[in-house]
Structures are given as C-alpha cells and as structure tokens.
Design goal:
elongated, five-stranded antiparallel β-sheet, 44% strand, mainly beta, 38 strands, 5 helices, ten-stranded mixed β-sheet, single chain
Length: 504
C-alpha cells in the first residue's frame, strides 16, 4: 500500500478532534505503520461513565483505494451516589430533634468506573426550619466501588424549635471532583417519624396502599414486613395482619405483642390494628394475643363472609364516611367498644360493629376487622386519604402546614414530584407527579451541564395525578447517550429536580 493517509471523524457531542489526519507512507505486505502525527481528540468533562465513543477512520492510498474502520473507546468517569445519613452529637439519640444543633455525616459511594479524586461538597436545604451552620464536607479520594463519608469534616445544622416533629427536611449535597459535579438529594426527618407500617399480611396490598397514601398526604414514615426494632423512633405504628386464610397471628405475650404494649403504655404511643380474626378467633383458638383490653375492644363473635359497606358514625371523626369494601372477606370478627373505646364504623348491610377508636388518656388506638387499604374510595370525605388523615389527627399527629379538610375528595392535597421509575433506566423512564391546583406546568430533561435535552410538557394542567414516559430521545428525536440526567418539574408555586441515570 503506497502513500497511505487516514482521516478520523466522529459525530459524538462529547468529543472534539483537534488532529484528524495522518500519514503512514508505504506499508509493505504483512507490515504495519504508526500514524504521523498521532490523531488527537479531547473528551468533555461532563461525559458520562461507560459512554462509548465510536469513530470513523477512513484510509486512502495512491491508487484511490479506500478502507474504512470503526475504532471505539469507552470513557470511564466517577458516579457518586447517596447512601445514608447519620446524626452525630446533639443529645446523642441519633435523631435531629426540634431546637437541636448536630452534625450530619453523609455516606456516598462511587458507582462509576474512574476514581473520584479530592471530593469536596456543599450542603443545601429546602426546609424553612433548618439552618446550616457548616455547609462544607470533604470526602477525600474514592476508588470505584468504594464508599466514603465526611466524618472528619461533618456538616453542622440546627433545627428550629418550631419544627413540627416528623417534618421531612429536604437536603442536597453538591459534590465536586475535578470535572465531575453532581447533586445528591436526601431527606432527614426531624424528631420522630410519623408512622411505621408493620405489614406481615401474606397479601401485602392493604399495608402498601396505606403507606403510599400517607406519603402522598405528606406524612413521614417507614414500611416493613417485620416489626421495627425500635418503635420509639415513631409516633404511631400501623399493623395489618390480614384476613383468614391469608392472615398472620401475633403470638400471645410474644416479642411483638410485648413491644406494642410497651409502646402504648410506656411511651404514650399510638397504634392502628386491623384483621379479620385478630380480635375474636385468634386469641381464643390460635394462641393469638388478646389486644381487646388495650384497644377498648370487646370481641363479640367470629363473623362470616358478609362485610358489606363500611359506614362511619355521627359525632366521631368518621362522620359522613361511607365506603364499599373490596378487601378479603371471610370470618370477619364482630367488635364493639368497651371501656374508653367508642364506635367509629358499622357494617351497612348486616348492622354489626367493625371499627373502634380508643382514647385511653396516655395512649390512643384504632382497631378494625376490615382492611382499610382495600376500601373503595367514594366522593367527598369518603376516601382512604381522608380516613387515614383523620386517624392521624385523632392520634394527635398533625403535619405542617396541615391537610386542608376540603381537599380530601380524590384529588391531590399538594403539588409534588412523585419520582422516576426505573432508575437506572434503559429505553424508557416513567415520570410521575401530582398537581393540587390548576396552572402552568413545565417538565423537562437536562444533562449534567445544565443543557435542556427534552421538553416533555409546557401547558396548563388541571389538578390530578400525571404520568409521562421519556423515550431517551432529545427534542430532535435522537437517542441521547447514557449518563446522568435531571428531571425538572416547575409550577408557579413548586419546583423540584430529580436525578435519573440512563444505561445502555
């Protein structure tokens, strides 16, 4: 091959070629030659981890022969992700309480393919109740796959004495390492969280639905299929044990029953308990714990498969509520109030009691023999959101600024970004959000440099729940490269950004 020369080209937005042509001279049969000069290109500082750059390399010789090759290189970059936060100092209980100053130690992980050197950070917050006294933290150098924290240089924050207990304060950590920059978001609850849902029910939908609804209402809490090891971290525990034959039996005087009893009697706790057999059948015939005296419940009979409409009672916090029942329905216990308990629900077809609330003074409870999470929402106050919010208020747990009573009719109570799924994503990213008021909505995707990649919405929308799907393409219909992107939701009164990772 005589008089060989080559031309290098590409169309990748992350690459700039500064030397695109080179000479090879004459190349004998079965021999090789190096380019002169070397090709040279620069990779943008915001190029994502794992991004593949594909080149076109075209060779020519004196005889006008042409050979085309497609060499490629993979770019490796750090990808820092949030892992956990710990409260250090203060009163030493591991919780940031109202009026308290403490240090925050945040753990991050490098999930990328390159070392993150000399990682520095800045802490910010969107909470009006939080003051950041020291916003800088150093993490040193983090190798791929390793974790690090800022325990040697913690952030320092103060929670206002007026912070509602259970308030979920939003924080962002802006991390920097050379060219790499990212924003990691997390929340920290001030004081005790509002609730813990223990859902040992083998058919878990009831507890899962309650957890989703309470989160949408603005309450902070956790969900698990085992009882939390430390109930003192929560203001209320909500327990779903199910309906025969898909039910869980809480053993008499066992560890769980003892923990719940101590939580109520010794910690001024709040508890909700539902189950078809937990009140009558289990304590008498299955060695189940008898919660009746604690909950102000008198279990009168082992019922049958006849749970119909569930109707609230006048003069209680369930006044005006009427639900169709869509949960499991067999051997539904009959329960009536006793002692300090009072009736809150009756079956509408067969006229038996099925829900009791109890104000024991130092603690409060609610017990039902149906599955609250599988009630069917109606109109007005007859929604599960209204019922759960009323139970929380009966427990004395009030969120700030609180739920407006007139807005519990199936529409969102507040404007909120609900998340992206899956994350990391492949070819599709589902984006969910809710609007409490009619207004202009802007929803767009941005890359890590802040450039808008795709405008998904810019129009006036009515209140409601919305879901949109991003197909990993830009406004020109081109597939975008793998990497980190930000979904940004804007309304007149609300703004939120969420990080999304696109994989190929």
């Amino acid at each position: 091959a005589n008089g060989v020369y080559g031309l290098l080209s590409e169309s990748n937005p992350y690459v700039t070629i500064s030397i695109d042509s080179a000479w090879y001279g004459n190349i004998a049969q079965n021999d090789s030659a190096l380019s002169n000069p070397y090709y040279r290109f620069a990779v943008a500082g915001n190029c994502p981890n794992g991004h593949v750059i594909s080149f076109d390399l075209e060779f020519h010789d004196n005889n006008n022969s042409t050979w085309i090759s497609h060499p490629s290189v993979t770019v490796y970059a750090p990808v820092l992700t949030y892992q956990s936060v710990s409260v250090v100092g203060g009163n030493g209980n591991g919780i940031l309480d109202p009026g308290e100053t403490a240090n925050l130690v945040v753990t991050i992980k490098n999930e990328g393919g390159a070392t993150a050197s000399n990682v520095t950070s800045t802490l910010t917050t969107s909470s009006p109740f939080i003051t950041i006294n020291d916003n800088s933290g150093n993490y040193g150098t983090i190798a791929p796959g390793n974790q690090a924290n800022n325990s040697a240089d913690p952030y320092t924050v103060t929670a206002s004495g007026t912070t509602p207990t259970g308030h979920a304060a939003g924080f962002s950590v802006i991390v920097n390492s050379g060219y790499y920059c990212d924003t990691l978001a997390f929340t920290l609850v001030v004081g005790r969280k509002h609730y813990y849902i223990w859902n040992p029910d083998p058919t878990p939908a009831p507890g899962q639905n309650m957890h989703t609804i309470l989160g949408a209402l603005g309450y902070s809490g956790d969900y698990g299929t085992t009882l939390a090891s430390d109930l003192s971290l929560y203001q209320a525990v909500l327990i779903c044990v199910g309906v025969f034959s898909n039910n869980y039996i809480i053993s008499s005087n066992g560890a769980a029953a003892t923990a719940i009893t101590n939580f109520l009697q010794n910690s001024n706790g709040r508890a909700y308990l539902e189950g078809g057999d937990v009140w009558y059948w289990d304590p008498r015939y299955q060695n189940g714990h008898d919660f009746g005296p604690l909950f102000g419940v008198n279990a009168t009979a082992d019922g049958s498969a006849d749970m119909g409409p569930v109707n609230g009672r006048t003069g209680t916090f369930t006044n005006g509520m009427n639900f169709a029942y869509g949960g499991e329905n067999s051997f539904m216990d009959r329960i009536s109030p006793t002692g300090t308990g009072f009736l809150i629900f009756r079956d509408g077809n067969n006229n038996y009691d099925c829900g009791v609330a109890n104000n024991a003074g130092t603690y409060r409870t609610v017990g039902t023999s149906f599955e609250l999470g599988l009630l069917t929402d109606g109109t007005g106050v007859s929604t599960r959101a209204a019922l759960l919010d009323s139970i929380m208020k009966f427990f004395g747990i009030v969120i700030n600024p609180g739920v407006e009573e007139g807005k519990l009719a199936g529409l969102p109570l507040r404007t909120q970004f609900q998340g992206v799924f899956p994350n990391p994503a492949g070819e599709r990213l589902r984006i969910s959000y809710q609007l409490a008021e009619r207004g202009l909505v802007k929803l767009a995707l941005y890359d890590v440099s802040g450039r808008m990649v795709r405008a998904l919405a810019e129009a006036v929308y009515d209140p409601g729940y919305y879901h949109m799907v991003w197909d990993a393409r830009d406004d020109q219909g081109r597939l975008v490269p793998a990497g980190v992107y930000f979904v940004r939701l804007e309304t007149d009164q609300y703004c939120h950004s969420e990080k999304a990772i696109l994989m190929r």
